[in-house]
Design goal:
The protein is of the alpha+beta class. The chain has one domain. The protein has 3 helices and 3 strands; from the N terminus they run E-E-H-E-H-H. A 3-stranded antiparallel beta sheet has the order 2-1-3, covered by helices on one side. A hairpin with a 7-residue loop joins strand 1 and strand 2. Helix 1 packs across helix 3 and helix 2 packs across helix 3. The radius of gyration is 12 Å and the shape is globular. The mean pLDDT is 91.
Length: 81
């Protein structure tokens, strides 16, 4: 998946690329405030999951990242990671 974001108006956009987990980890580490989403692209499953997390977090990307990472850690399918 790839995600294009911009933190403030007038700044350059940044591309974050990788799995949904990697993208959300980078967002949590690199941003203090929620960046503006410019575009995203990925598989159908990734896009649906990304949009679902954004809806549940009220379009706050940092909150969506936190929620997704908490879910990922609790999920039994990914317990070995």
């Amino acid at each position: 998946m790839e995600l294009w974001v911009r933190v403030k108006e007038g700044e350059k956009s940044q591309k974050i690329q990788g799995s949904l987990k990697k993208i959300f980890e980078q967002i949590k580490e690199n941003y203090n405030q929620s960046p503006q989403i410019l575009a995203f692209n990925g598989t159908k499953r990734e896009r649906r999951r990304f949009k679902r997390e954004l809806r549940q977090a009220g379009k706050d990307l940092l909150k969506a990242a936190e929620n997704y990472l908490n879910w990922y850690r609790r999920c039994k399918r990914f317990a070995n990671n």
